[in-house]
Amino acid sequence: MDEKLPVFIIDSGDVGLENRGLSYFTVINTFFGGSSWLLYLSPPQLFTKSYAHLITMLNQLLGFFVATKILASSAEPFLNGADVVAYYSLEAGEPAVIGSSEYSSIYTSYDAFDENSLNELNTTFYFANEDNLALFEADSMKYLPAYGGFCAFGVAFETVEDGGWPWSRNYVGAPGTPDIWRIDDDGRLYIAFIPGAMDGFFEDWPSGRDQADKRWRSWWGDASPSTMNGPFNTDCLGPPDTWAMHSCSNKPQQVPGVDTIPIVSEECIAALDKFCSKAAPSNPDVDILSSTCDECIDDNANDLMAGGCERNATSNYISNVVDKYYCK
Hints:
This protein is 29% helix and 14% strand.
């Protein structure tokens, strides 16, 4: 440590900290009055109460909110609270172990798309017990899932050109189901939406992995050996029978600092609502797993295209993106 830098030590007992995994997120490096300042929380623990008290103390010390970086983590935990460490003790096919906010840790990944400006992305992970929390904090990279826990098959193969799937840096998906997981021979954890997607990802190994790795890097930049790049899945969740309630096909996961680019126009959405709202899977009277919505789009394709919905690039028919947006 540079001895010329002022250092503030705050005892956790003074600010209501509890022994709940802030991980190594303990150093805030900021600038105040043209000088560098280092602030340590001692010991490295996550506060679960008295947020206002902590921020007030920091405000008094540094004159502005240096604590906002700690608080800017995901509102929802990774993959509905799935314990990423627990996967490594499960037998193949066993369901995920859901952790608790009592044992939580904030992990900082990076958006390195712009090589000159790293954007920090903070995600909350839950664990089933203190032992799993400690294992994660000791070696997070060992347990973090590939592609942020989004569907590995979707990241590898699902594109606008091949089926109308919208996934990209500016339209974040694809959905992952906590219970659909697999660990490869190198100890890397993968999540998928349905069992068939996981089988498809591993079918021609390792081409699926190589394709997904390449695409993920094109979205979020190259990762270093000690950090993970890109967001983690907190919003795009399976299984299919609940998918329509939070479908990332029409409501992609938001990533701080990254704009979402709409995949259908407002005119198209209005036309869809006019002709097919009663058939949409978001309608509680519709069987989510039925083809009712797809059939409505087929039956009303001409009216929908006249109303502003996009045509397929290779035919005169309505674009597959419309179906994926409204029915999936």
